[in-house]
Design a protein that fits this description.
The structure holds two protein chains of two kinds. Chain A is an alpha/beta fold. Helices cover 34% and strands 17% of the residues of chain A. The longest helix of chain B has 13 residues, at 127-139. The chains are: A alpha/beta, B alpha/beta.
């Protein structure tokens, strides 16, 4: 049993009582809701004649179904319009703040929480979305829940949970040039497996993690769930506090910042904290990682050969065989050179300002390959405005990228942004499941945002380190 | 069944259906395009839709398309079943198709939690045991598989094997306290005290 970790401390501070099931009733400090998983929960409340217990600790946005091109109401898609209308009614009736598209604050739920200062160290944060683990980057205890649990949280402000073990994942050394946070998490999942984290909360630590900016830490925590861990976190430090201090919210409320800082500092894992498991990864040995298969654990260094199914552990071989058939890749080949049709730069994993900046640097002065349709979907309206203000939109558009409005978009194909037929997509998102991007024959290759930019330009999966070393020749 | 006071679920009995493969994610169980709804009604028909039908809606090879499994209520799966998205639409779809219990090698956490919220046990056994049950169900599609939650066993034909049921899940199901809303609502005063003790909750 772990002791003295951030997880233990935050858990203890939020424990209400023990339930007859042996589960802990845990207080929820921030409940984020969106249009896909919450309407049924509001319906259940209504049937039981219950009200929302803590509307002031609840915040809504619309992201999954929101169109990223034409957002005029009613939406062209009737189903999307119905879901939006239902959410509007629910938040209005309950008195829940709603970052809707007219507010200028709308965006993917895991992008807007942090940028609005809602996400803070030492909070318990839940949302009906598995990528809620993202918020752990701030030292919050954050995890995804199902709709019946949303009902619980709406009705009681609490959730029934069992305590998990804590695994510390220490990424040592300095990441080489061209290797980013996304590569680190893809490598972690590749090594520990898509179910390696079941029963665990992941604590990401070590020099390579500490040196990451907050956006990088969010990318890593975001994909904890792809490794089976429902929650992952990074201990809050100066980087965390600086980032929060710079948010508009704390700029306007500096006294709140000063009041909360001691609590934030107090929740970090103690130096002598005890863990249930410790894993060490040498960050200095990593290279850009891309997926060759149909689970996020099926990754490989961009210059490494794709493994043969028979060389994998017996329980992975069958899945690998089917994945390679679907992706049409052969063992022994590298992913470098895999032709792509679509480049998607977006999602709650990698659609924040630094992600777009890094990708723009690769794209600048180059052109999207003629056979590729490429799109940038900023994570939020705030990200979009900031990116536009520093000229990133122009860079992308000049290269031939489509610049869209904020939303989940092609990460999961619930709006009009979808793969067609067997298109292959270089994607900065988090899941390469069959059918994930809207077409059951579609092929998704996960990679970091700079690699997506490189793939867009070259028309195939490309080692971004090579592209960056090639001088851009500007035509006059 | 989610809308009233919880019943006890001590055991589930019925014919089985094997759905084979590791890492079956919730996008496969219910593709996202079927989630553009504001209720869970009618989701059953879309369970495993893209595995069951081709582009022209012709049936593909899938156990859920086979008549012999149509009345099944116990699904037998392999490792890391239900990984990926937190969508409760996945177990809701399976329940509406007719599933009342799932036996597997392992389950993703959010999926298992969502099943519990619906009173659906997710019991686990080692890979070999699970495969043996899958084979038996394949050969005996009309045979009963009895999942005894309280005793932590699964019985098929003349064979009874030990399985694991997570402690909290077992208590919740056997004692009928798996619907946690009312249970937790009763502690509202203690909840308010916890809230007041947290520096970031404004209780003024």
């Amino acid at each position: 049993m772990s002791k003295g970790t951030l997880y233990d401390k935050v858990w203890d501070r939020h424990t209400v009582t023990e339930l007859p099931t042996g589960q802990t009733q845990l207080f929820v400090g921030l409940h984020l809701i969106h249009e896909v998983t919450s309407p049924q929960a509001f319906g259940m409340l209504e049937e039981r004649d219950m009200a929302v217990a803590y509307p002031e600790l609840t915040h809504a946005t619309v992201d999954h179904i929101v169109p990223t091109a034409d957002q005029s109401r009613p939406y062209a898609d009737d189903a999307a319009e119905r879901m939006m209308a239902e959410l509007e009614e629910n938040v209005h009736d309950a008195g829940i703040e709603f970052s809707d598209p007219t507010s200028g604050n709308q965006g993917i739920v895991h992008v807007i929480g942090p940028e609005q200062g809602l996400t803070q160290p030492g909070k318990t944060i839940v949302c009906g979305d598995s990528h809620t683990s993202t918020h752990g980057a701030f030292g919050a205890l954050a995890f995804g829940i199902g709709t019946s649990q949303i009902r619980d949280v709406l009705a009681t402000g609490t959730i029934a949970m069992e305590k998990k073990d804590v695994r510390k994942i220490e990424v040592t050394g300095e990441l080489p040039d061209g290797v980013g946070a996304k590569d680190v998490i893809l490598e972690i999942i590749r090594r520990l497996g898509t179910d390696g984290g079941v029963g665990y909360v992941y604590e990401y630590a070590g020099e390579a993690i500490e040196n990451l900016d907050m956006e990088g830490r969010m990318s890593i925590c975001n994909m904890s769930i792809e490794g089976g861990a429902r929650a992952g976190y990074v201990n809050p430090d100066e980087t965390t506090f600086e980032w929060l201090r710079d948010t508009e919210y704390f700029q306007n409320n500096p006294e709140t910042f000063d009041e909360l800082l001691p609590y934030w500092e107090s929740v970090a894992s103690d130096d002598d904290a005890e863990y249930d498991d410790v894993v060490t990864i040498d960050g200095s040995e990593l290279e850009p990682v891309v997926t060759w298969g149909t689970t996020p654990g099926q990754g490989v260094g961009v210059t490494e050969p794709i493994p043969a199914p028979e060389d994998l552990p017996a329980d992975k071989a069958d899945t690998a065989r089917r994945a390679q058939e679907h992706m049409r890749v052969e063992p022994g080949e590298t992913m470098d050179g895999y032709p792509i049709d679509v480049a998607f730069l977006g999602s709650c994993t990698n659609a924040r300002l630094p992600d777009l900046r890094r990708a723009a640097r690769v794209v600048e002065g180059r052109e999207v390959h003629p056979d590729v349709r490429a799109m940038v979907v900023p994570g939020s309206q705030r990200v979009a405005r900031a990116a536009e203000a520093e000229g990133l939109r122009e860079v992308f558009e000049a290269a031939g990228f489509d610049w869209r409005n904020a939303g989940c978009s092609m990460c999961l194909g619930m709006n009009e942004d979808q793969l067609e037929g067997d298109e292959a997509c270089a994607s900065s998102s988090n899941r390469n499941f069959v059918g994930r991007q809207g077409s059951k024959d579609g092929r998704t290759v996960l990679m970091n945002p700079r690699m997506v930019a490189a793939a867009a330009v070259e028309g195939e999966v490309t080692d971004v380190r090579e592209v960056e070393n090639t001088e851009v020749v500007v035509d006059d | 069944m989610t809308d009233g006071p919880a019943e006890t679920v001590e055991h589930v009995s019925g014919s089985g259906i094997p759905v084979r493969g590791n890492d079956i994610d919730t996008d496969q169980i219910i593709p996202a395009r079927f989630m553009k709804v504001v209720t869970f009604d009618g989701l059953g028909q879309f369970s495993f839709f893209d595995q069951r039908f081709d582009d022209d809606d012709n049936e593909k090879d899938h156990p859920m398309n086979e008549d012999r499994f149509r009345d099944a209520s116990v699904m037998v799966v392999n490792a890391n079943f239900g990984c990926g998205s937190s969508r409760e639409h996945a177990p809701q779809a399976l329940v509406r198709w007719g599933i009342d219990a799932i036996v597997g090698e392992s389950f993703a956490e959010i999926f298992a939690g969502n099943c519990l919220a619906l009173g659906v046990p997710t019991v686990t056994a080692d890979a070999e045991t699970v495969e043996t049950i899958q084979d038996w169900v394949d050969d005996n599609p009309d045979g009963d598989v009895d999942v005894d939650v309280a005793a932590e066993t699964v019985t098929y034909g003349d064979t009874t094997v030990d399985v694991t049921v997570d402690d909290a899940q077992r208590k919740a199901l056997v004692e009928g306290v798996w619907d946690t809303t009312a249970l937790m609502k009763a502690n509202a005063e203690a909840v308010a005290e916890t809230a007041a003790s947290l520096p970031y909750v404004d209780t003024a």
